[in-house]
């Protein structure tokens, strides 16, 4: 009956990689910036509707909604990285 070759002794056993260091806290400007983006985006959209589509920038029309939503999304994306 053939014998098993066994494990090659020259190969080192598996060692897991070292744990990464703990997540570092955000800079002090992070929270005020994302709160400002959220509030500014909300105000931009509200002003657009309340002013009957004349403000904040009347010449770009419906793109005012796009600007408001971009500001909101920027704030929401920043909240996901907040620690």
Automatic annotation (TrEMBL):
Subcellular location(s) per record: Cell membrane
Example of a GO cellular component annotation carried by this entry: plasma membrane
Biased amino acid composition, Basic and acidic residues: 1-11
InterPro entries: CrgA
Example GO BP: cell division
Residue segments, region Disordered: 1-26
Ranges annotated as spanning the membrane: 29-51, 57-78
Domain of life: Bacteria
Keywords, ordered alphabetically: Cell cycle, Cell division, Cell membrane, Membrane, Transmembrane, Transmembrane helix
Membrane topology: Multi-pass membrane protein
Family in the record: Belongs to the CrgA family.
Job of this protein: Involved in cell division.
Name the UniProt record assigns to this protein: Cell division protein CrgA
Organism whose genome encodes this protein: Terracoccus luteus
């Amino acid at each position: 009956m053939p014998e098993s070759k066994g494990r090659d002794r020259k190969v080192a056993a598996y060692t897991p990689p070292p744990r990464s260091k703990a997540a570092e806290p955000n800079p002090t400007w992070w929270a005020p910036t994302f709160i400002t983006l959220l509030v500014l985006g909300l105000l931009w959209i509200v002003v657009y509707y309340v002013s009957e589509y004349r403000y904040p920038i009347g010449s770009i029309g419906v793109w005012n909604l796009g600007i408001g939503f971009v500001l909101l999304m920027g704030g929401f994306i920043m909240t996901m990285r907040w620690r």
